[in-house]
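Give me the fold.
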Amino acid sequence: MLRKLHPFHLRILILSLFFLFMTIQIAALEYHALALRSDGTLAAWGEDYNYGLDNVPTGYDFVAIATGSKHSLALTSAGNVVAWGDNYHGQLNVPAGHVYTRIPAGNYHSGAITSEGTVVAWGSNEFGLTEVPAGGGFTDLACGGRLSFALREVPDRDRLVWIHNLRGQPVASVQLRRGQTTADWDGKDASGNLCASGVYLYHCQGLGPQAGGKFLILK
């Protein structure tokens, strides 16, 4: 069953479809929508009650956009963030001194990943939204209404290849050094005894269920 759209929402939908044919990204949240054109310029539409739709920034080469409930963000090709709209919660107070690579926006807060892989956040600190995790290595970030998620890349490290019998009992383990793709096993259990002929299972720790299999020992 189709639900009749409110005229305001219908207008946003029609304009979204129009700009879709000449844009590379569209962002929308509660009251307005934003489009990034292929030439690096912006278009905005929706309700304009102090949300900055009548003063969309120009003169930049934008590469990414994000919208909050009442504010907007745009990332330039130089790694700078331009913010406009409502600033009641400090949504426009972008921290200086960073080169940014990603710029998600929540309802009343925003976040960004810097070129050093650290996370920066500003705006409303309700629910600890601007208390970002320390350290680097972050590659992606998402901001919601009351929470944010950050994805951190785990560096390569030594791992263990576990060997089990068909009953699921551990038999031995072999260390897989960083950068290695194969591991050698001498066929002995953890006590130093040679294992009996049969089928055995192996699994590489920390690489998911697909990083395993079975093999056969014949004497």
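The first strand starts at residue 23 and ends at 28.
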